[in-house]
Amino acid sequence: LITCDYMLYLFLFQQFQRVIPHQFDCGPDKLIQTAYQVKYNAKKMKKLEKEYTTIKTKEMEEQVEIKRLRTENRLLKQRIDTLEKHKCSSRYSEDFVLQLEKELVQARLSEAESHCALKEMQDKVLEMEKAGQIRMFCRMNQRFSVISLMSP
Questions:
Q1: pLDDT tens string 33-76
Q2: Are 114 and 80 in contact (CB under 8 A)?
Q3: DSSP string across 24-81
Q4: Secondary structure class of 22 (helix, strand, coil)
């Protein structure tokens, strides 16, 4: 995927640096005329726009969830530290120490679950970003092929 992006950027860079300026040397009128001749499917554009907003909405929701999980994870770590500090103190009764140990185990389990959920959310975000880059590459490739077909 990174190679495809790199190759696309390299190709576009070459086109803008070498080919396109020579095609429109005669003046800006030809460039504007070519721009007006570009046709697109309005339904397809609406569909792509809707798909894009859906993806961005999901990404935002997942970012909120990731932020919540990080906050929860931080609070659980603080609770674990507090429990470990109290565990080291010898002035507490055995029952209290046992209760704190149980809470410590539960907090560690909860932290592990939160960490796994955070990892899953990060993986989903990465997958969505990759899917978005692939769609963007296809759209850019289609647009460029239309422009190159229209130029003499």
A1: 877 887 878 888 888 888 888 988 998 999 999 999 999 999 99
A2: no
A3: TTT-HHHHHHHHHH----HHHHHHHHHHHHHHHHHHHHHHHHHHHHHHHHHHHHHHHH
A4: helix
pLDDT tens profile 102-145: 988 988 888 888 888 888 888 887 887 777 766 665 665 555 55
Q: Are 80 and 46 in contact (CB under 8 A)?
A: no
Cβ(114)–Cβ(67) below 8 Å: no
Residue 149 corresponds to which tokens in the numbers above?
């077909």
- Distance in angstroms (rounded) separating the CA atoms of residues 123 and 53: 20
Residue type, 25: D
pTM of the model: 0.38
**Distance in angstroms (rounded) separating the CA atoms of residues 59 and 65:** 10
Buried b (16+ CB within 10 A) or exposed e, 117-137: bbeebeeebeeeeeeeeeeee
